[in-house]
Design a protein that fits this description.
196 residues, alpha/beta, two-stranded antiparallel sheet, 11% strand
Length: 196
Amino acid sequence: NGDVVVDLQSDGLVMNNRVFILNPSQADAKEIFEEMVVVGTSGSGIEMGLEAARLALSEPLISNENNGILREDANLSLIFISDEDDFSPMSAYSYQRFFTELKGEEAYREHSRMRISAVVGKSIPPFDGAASCESENGIGYYGPRYIELASKTEGALESICDEDFSPIAEELGLLASGLELEFELSSLPDLSTLNV
């Protein structure tokens, strides 16, 4: 796991703290995660999360500063958290194709190999320029490009204006891990053998 700053006018395209994997047994996992997600609100007003992720997963960064973040045996799960839409230069489809191809042909059929999730303003605003949502923490503008990619890759989509991020974090963690929450039965169960 890591954090890529989406201000392309800064030098922030490397993974924060060079920590790629967090696990509960790490004594400082909570502190590292908090540092990774608190990136601030200063910098360019033109957010380009998709382009920043593409650059972070491209040469020369993927072979140098970000070496190890993309592993052949691991799923690729991108999570974008933004209070506005993405203004990256390429089409949303071009970014989807780039990220999917990083995981190979299988990722086109099996979406768990590459998922994009988004925590953005997800409600269509009443008129152009209006906020998508508001909360005590601020406002969020509609994020249609992130929403499109989350939908196409079967990722999670949540509101940036939610007061409690615990359920969002849990859902994103389960999706990123690739663990299944639901299992389809191959036949009807024998009710006499079930214990609840």
